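Subject: Oxidoreductase

B.,
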Amino acid sequence: MSLLFKPIQLGHLTLDNKIIIAPMCQYSATEQGEITYWHEQQWANYALSGAGLCIVEATAVQAEGRISYADLGLWNNTQRDQITALLKKVKTLSPMPFAIQLAHAGRKASTDKPWDGRGQLPPESPQGWQTVSASDIGFNSTDHPPHALSGDEIKVIIQDFAQAAIRAVAAGFDLIELHAAHGYLLHQFMSPLSNRRKDEYGGNFENRIRLTLEVFQAIQHAVPENYPIGIRISATDWMDHAEGWNLESSVGLAKALEQLGAAYVHVSSGGLHVQQDIKIGANYQVPFAKVIKENVKIPVITVGLITEAEQAENILQEGEADAIGLARAILYDPRWPWHAAAQLGETIAIAPQYLRCQPHGLKALFKAYT
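Prediction pasted inline below.
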């Protein structure tokens, strides 16, 4: 059996294979942060994909924590109840577990939809609001400066992550991923390029990772014992700057999270600074995952321009990661796991309604869900 199609354990959750649908913002919620029909068809599509796990998009724990006014939220019980109803329907399609990524955008909030311009909307805009961050340093020089959070405001955010986690469990999600990547709030606290604080949340490495660890622990205390919690991080800021967040910092963070009981580390990169210099190419983020994997015993998920089955399999065979995250590739090809199974000579479980589409000459490719 190929490694890609072997089961993997994330905490107490067992996945049928090592293909992870990575969280991808859809910018298709109502302005109240509620799901729409788009989410219904999208999540159903994910459920039928054959992947081992789906992590749905970054979901804000506060209204002010959304990236855009069209982002999904889980800061109230109406949102929870609507997600609960949808998740129940989606889970009738397949046994694939679903996870949610809890997030706060910080200074990168209050934006337009990507296809409508991407720019930040000022607080006086009907669809904009005042952003917050570790310090009053904007992401772009033209942005309205964020409000530097006070100690009491930080406590509220920590509690809101915990409350969103309680709602996520009640809604039926099988796992929670904490979003600490891509230049959003937790990453803003971790990087010296965006954190100029002089209190216990700024300065040295231990202070800058404090908020991420406190949020993780607050979620941990809010959910049932042994409920799996993973985290997504940016391994580097991609800045030629000695003071930026880098791979060494990420290794230190991963070790601290492992000690707290994290189910896995999901390794991405970048997103903190407009002058980042990312060297994009196939497998461009895999070396970061490899180094982190060498330093922790918990599973490491890698992501980033992984598009082919053999490419994914080779990453696992080389021991560079424990699981493969797919984002754009699975948007382009929603049946990517089926095609990967065919290319690697594996059998994949699918909905029985689709068994008749078995390709000629590949009689052992499909089996029905048990």
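DSSP finds eleven helices and 14 strands in the chain.

T.
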